[in-house]
Write a sequence for this structure.
């Protein structure tokens, strides 16, 4: 048997189904109200599952997009013992946990100071 879950949306849907049967269709017998309650709960559960599936699909698509973009940032053909090289600029880069991005690493001298200080973090 399939696993049946009862969400708050199912309860709200069942309540709306019973309310529609009682106030719109002016039904006072128990059987039509129960049927409308079950149908309302079922429809609300299906709508909730469809929305959750769309959210999960978008999250998975975004995760794969992020992974493909971050793997393309590092040029795997130029591996070094100290770090990786950027495929865009060719500089040695490393992950900086303070900002959460790959940043160039190296020794700053007087002739290349503008190369490393073109972005002001402060």
């Amino acid at each position: 048997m399939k696993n049946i879950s009862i969400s708050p949306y199912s309860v709200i849907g069942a309540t709306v189904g019973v309310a529609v049967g009682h106030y719109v269709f002016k039904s006072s017998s128990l059987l039509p109200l129960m049927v409308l309650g079950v149908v309302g709960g079922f429809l609300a559960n299906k709508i909730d599952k469809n929305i959750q599936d769309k959210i999960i699909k978008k999250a998975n698509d975004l995760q794969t997009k992020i992974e493909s973009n971050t793997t393309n940032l590092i040029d795997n053909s130029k591996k070094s013992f100290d770090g990786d090289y950027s495929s865009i600029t060719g500089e040695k880069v490393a992950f900086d946990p303070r900002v959460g991005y790959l940043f160039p690493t190296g020794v700053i001298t007087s002739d290349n100071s503008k190369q490393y200080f073109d972005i002001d973090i402060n």
